Amino acid sequence: MILLTAQNISKTYMERKVLDNVSFYLNEGDKVGIIGINGTGKSTLLRILAGAERPDSGEIIRTGGIRISYLPQIPEFDERGSILSQVLAHLPDDLKEAKEYEAKSILAKLGVTDYERDISTLSGGEKRRAGIAAALVQPSDVLLLDEPTNHIDNETAQLLEDLLMKYRGAIVMVTHDRYFLNKICGRIAEVDMGSLYVNEGNYSDYLAVKAQREIDEAAAERRNRSVYRRELEWISRGARARGTKSKDRIERFEALRDREIPVEAEKLKLQSVSSRLGKKTIEIEDISKSIDGKQLISGFSYVVSRDARIGIVGHNGAGKSTFLEMIMGETSPDSGRIVLGDTVNISYFSQECESMDPGQRVIDYIKETAERVQTPDGTVSAAQMLERFLFTPELQWNRIEKLSGGERKRLYLLKILMTAPNILLLDEPTNDLDIATLTILEDYLEDFRGAVIAVSHDRYFLDKMADEIFEFRDGQCIRYMGNYSDYAEKSAQNRTEPEKAAKKAVKKERVYTGKTKLRFSFKEQREYETIDDDIAQLEQSIADIEKEIAANSSDYVKLQELSDKKDSLEQQLSEKMERWVYLNDLAERIEKGETV
């Protein structure tokens, strides 16, 4: 049964059309993930579905009596009252008592146990967890979640994943958490340039479909280029439009020549910008730190290698950000010391974006850091760097006040990366970023010539970025070799407490691809070597027959015989041309080293 339908929805902000005649439906039990670049209208679509915002045109049709629960990016609470009272605040009075146990249970699973604590004292991450509990405890047929994993730690994200897997209603969520999209969602909706593109399946299925579409488009264009080259050779030899089929062939050539060549989706890649790093980097010597009587780290020593890739995990408030602040010198350890090498140039990405002048243009904000930067591929202008970070030329001249929150975060991140650091400290860099930006960042870090230390709750990001994990737990910093999946498996095995041992470990997929290099078969190789001569011979034979036809214009019996022979040769030529296109396309793929 269809629960919710959006018909021909349009919405414009500040002369920017974010949704253009978009339609969408939601069935019972559907689990839909909404993705897209920041600022494209994902949250707007969710607010419209929730009834929190009206579209400029179009309508939302709700099946009679359906109940919708909505979690916005910033949960809204009355700042007066306890956590529990605010989680239950939107329930009818006759339901509050019955739902109290369920609310406490969900809060406990999300790591909130002081139910009577004043909600005004909560951190952003704690408010997010309270908001999730409020959304889940409300009786609903449809759950709308806007970035539910933002500002929560890794364990809480996994617990939330389990809760949503068990939820019986329909879910629509905006998220950049690719593990969430893979495990929970059965449909992916991508918002792009005002339109909505829906793919059946989870995030991996979406990637496979998108990759295949790009391969098909590239193959079609290669075939067109191959045919065009062959036809160009034919035209260059002085072909004349004698006969219908020759005219058709010339028209085909002209159509190929004048076709609009599709722009291949650019492999958006931000070139690594860094400065030389000497042998001495960061030496951490027996440091300890406590805040308000809570021990965060005790007796920890470590030497950061020049190419370190360290991911930092732990509960909110465990000391992760404080650790980065000690490296930056913004706070000091209670004991021990941190020594930086003479050539160390650190760039620090804080959870809180620096203040920006809302009236400043995007391009001018970046030019404050550098007009041009040197990359391994040469000098790149500020405008080019912006474009590679998904800021179109038009968007670069917008004032910052017109940017969405995610776009501002992306702009701030680019500014940090452009300072030519050789050590990057990243505190929750994936919060509020879209998947396209995350992919660019991950590619950048892969090529970055220096050390990276990142605090993150994004398991997918840590799997791609890290080769060592620091876990902050119970006043200790525990080291694990490997990425996040390795850490999750090992840490689950190491814990003896019942509630921790019962927690599901994230299993790292080990896939044997079994791929071999693409190659010609023996028969194809022989055919590829001779097909040009075969085509030339057929073309010559057709030309000879055309001369015979002209010479026997009054002999109708001979004309019929020659015409039949010409038709047969032209059919053979057409088949040979198709084989020529196939073999040349295959040869190009073999030359590129493709596998099967």
Describe this entry's structure for a reader:
This protein has 596 residues and is an alpha/beta fold. It has three domains: 2-208, Rossmann fold; 282-501, 3-Layer(aba) Sandwich (Rossmann fold), CATH 3.40.50.300; 513-596, Orthogonal Bundle (Helix Hairpins), CATH 1.10.287. It contains 19 helices and 20 strands. The chain has helices at 42-50, 83-87, 93-109, 124-137, 154-166, 178-183, 203-236, 244-258, 320-328, 362-367, 382-388, 393-396, 405-417, 435-447, 459-465, 484-494, 498-501, 522-551, 556-591; strands at 2-13, 16-27, 31-35, 57-62, 68-71, 142-146, 170-174, 187-192, 195-200, 282-291, 294-304, 309-314, 335-340, 346-349, 372-375, 378-381, 423-427, 451-455, 468-473, 476-481. The strands form five sheets. Strands 5-6-7-3-8-9 form a six-stranded mixed β-sheet, sandwiched between helices. α14 links the parallel β17 (423-427) and β18. The longest helix has 36 residues, at 556-591. The model is unreliable at 260-268 and 498-514 (pLDDT under 50).
What is shown here, in short?
The protein is of the alpha/beta class. The protein contains 19 helices and 20 strands. GO terms for molecular function: ATP binding; ATP hydrolysis activity; DNA binding.
Structural class, judged by helices and strands?
alpha/beta
Strand order of the largest sheet: 5-6-7-3-8-9
Count of helical segments? 19
What is the CATH class of the largest domain?
Answer: Alpha Beta
Low-confidence stretches: 260-268, 498-514
The whole-angstrom Rg is 31 Å
User: What profile does the largest beta sheet have?
Assistant: 6 strands, mixed
**Shape designation:** globular
Distance between the termini: 42 Å
Helix content: 40-55%
Stated plainly, the CATH topology of the largest domain is called Rossmann fold
pLDDT averaged residue by residue = 83
Number of domains: 3
Name of the CATH architecture of the largest domain: 3-Layer(aba) Sandwich
CATH superfamily of the largest domain: P-loop containing nucleotide triphosphate hydrolases
Strand content bin: 15-25%
Number of strands: 20
